[in-house]
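Same chain as my last thread, 95 residues:
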Amino acid sequence: MSQLEIAGPARPAYVYILKCADNSLYTGWTYDLSVRLESHNKGKGAKYTRARLPVTLAYSEQLPDERTARQREYAIKQLSRPQKLKLIASKSSVL
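reply #2:
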């Protein structure tokens, strides 16, 4: 039996961008968007967002597993602010 079979099926994960009260952007990943957003707004999320409350969800993507979500998070973090805003705007126009 392989390690993958022992671990079971992959759990969907999300990468997200938050807009903070000071208009800055924060990128992260999670398994549960609503729980993570609530924890950020309660001051129990990332240290960065604690000083910039409240935060709102500006963008999210569902991905097949944690590894893919972490890779996407890294890729988004490498984008410039204008590129992130373009990404947010492109996703918003689809909804």
